[in-house]
Structures are given as C-alpha cells and as structure tokens.
Amino acid sequence: MIYFFTKRQGENSGRKVENWLKERAINYETLSPYTLTSEHLWQMLRVSEEGFDGLILSKTRAKKSWQNLALRGFEYETLTVEQMIEFILSYPQILRTPILFDETRLLVGYHEERIRAFIPRCYREIFQARVMEEEKKLYLKTYKDE
C-alpha cells in the first residue's frame, strides 16, 4: 500500500503528488496529522536514508514552525527513537510534506523524476514497451523515406 501524508489539503506540492497518483490510477491512502500512527512513522524510518532528519523540518529552515510550537530551544537529538515518534505524533506540524511511502520507498516533497519509482513494475514495463515500439516505428519511417 502506498501512503500519502500531507498536513493541509491544497498545498502546492501535495496537490502535485496527489494529481500524479490519480492520473496514473495508483491506489493510495491519504494520511493526515490525525490519522498518522506510530506504525506509519516506523515504516517511514525503515525506508528512509536520512532517518528523522529527512522527515522533519530543520530548525533553521522552519524557524517559525518551531517557535509557534514553543520548541525553539528544544533538543530532539537527545530523544530515543520511541520518544521521537511520540514527539512527532504530538507535533506533526514538524514533519515535512508531502511524504509518499510504501514498504520499500520514501519520497519527501514532489520530485518529478524520483516519484516515478512508485509506478508499479507492470506499468513501467508496458510503458517501456510502448516507447520501444514508437522508436522502432520512427526508425523504420526515417529509413524508409530515404
């Protein structure tokens, strides 16, 4: 199952991800700060290359978010993994968005090239076969006209 986490409906990059999934008829489940669970966070961590640092807003880039939560001086680096998960569930505003993940992949933000990894293999094979067929037709037409 592919999960799509977003904090607010209608945010630009979240809308792009959701449109991309719908255009390709890819099944997914939308997660919000209210439906996010510790199991979801554990799954994100399992497939993340950067751990929590890749999932949460940095204090320097999102200073206002941290200040609004009255967490400006808070040092989350000292927390255990379980404590950090509970912290995120209490303050989901610190998560980056959108987050797209499944059992083996994770994508934070909208990246046109990297999101293609979420296209099921059978669709990629069909697409590749169509591209090869079009290239073959173009090749034959080019040399037939000469």
UniProtKB/TrEMBL annotation:
InterPro entries: Arsenate_reductase-like, Thioredoxin-like_sf. It holds the Pfam family ArsC. PANTHER family: ARSENATE REDUCTASE, GLOBAL TRANSCRIPTIONAL REGULATOR SPX. Belongs to the ArsC family. This is Regulatory protein spx.
